[in-house]
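quick one, 352 residues, struct below
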Amino acid sequence: MSGRPAELEALRDDWSRLSEESGNIFLTWELADAWWRHLGAGREPVFGSVRRDGRTVAVLPLHRGGRPLRTLRFVGAGVADQVGAICAPGDLPAAAGELRRMLGEVPHDLFLADPVDGAEGWSALLGAEPTVHEASPGIEIETSDWDEFLAGRTANFRQQAGKYERWLVRDHALSYRFTSDGAQLERDLDLVFELHTRRWGAGTTEFQQEPMRSLHREFARAAFERGWLRIWIAELNGRPAAAWYGFRFGDADWAYQSGRDTSLGWRADCARRARIGARTACGLTRSCSARRSTSPASHGGPRSGQLRHPAHPARPARPPRRPRGAQGAGGFDPPLGWESCSTTAERPSGRP
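---
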């Protein structure tokens, strides 16, 4: 583990305030702190900021490292679903101007911004072409009435939301447990890692391995203390069967990782019909609907609730790989699952 950079500590208050204005859980000071402690060894902090009227309005947290190429990247890369400038949306142009200045003055061979939100227009802001685009599906919750929300969905979605869940409750004592007790947190994190490994296989994702496990344990503890953490465990006949690990921050619930037990020994038709992974995601949408009327105002005004899943078209684009050149250096109701509505939901996310 590496020590916390002085620059990170000095910016803590402004960073925390601005991350709330950004509405992005992955831009929080707490994630950056955990990232640096577990992944920052051998990396040099390169931080910039924008001030207006004596007040910091944007933070640009980069790090430099790598051989043989000196690479600049955002802090959080490799862990965060979305990195970038820490600021309110309206201050992105000013933040991009500071980033252009940094790229022109800080010696480096390659600037890699990934993954950033394509909807924020970073390609135009930096004058660089994106190299990779990835989908990041989301569900906008425009009503606090669950039945009204279901009425606007497909017949297949409505069936997934009701019939199969009722069947599991009746025949397999399906129940959901939310991690609300700090004394239970470590054990539930163990279940998240175990069920993730059971679903995808040992050694298939970095999320299962060190230093990512320790990083997520540290960030999960901080997120739990601040009321951001969301861990759901689905149990069948009293046995943990699936887990969902994510966060509630700003006006959105953020999915991060999940897993399920593939060794329960159900009949093939039972497994096909039940889709316990989908059921575990179920109440999350229901919860977003229920809290729609009390969603925080952000991004310029009141918003509906949102459910963000890693991997919403136009979010995120993974842009600018920009080499140096002539232009300069380049309490929550239980989980409806949208897994049943997406052909890509049950695949490794590609993140650590």
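Residues 131 and 319 are 5 Å apart (CA to CA).
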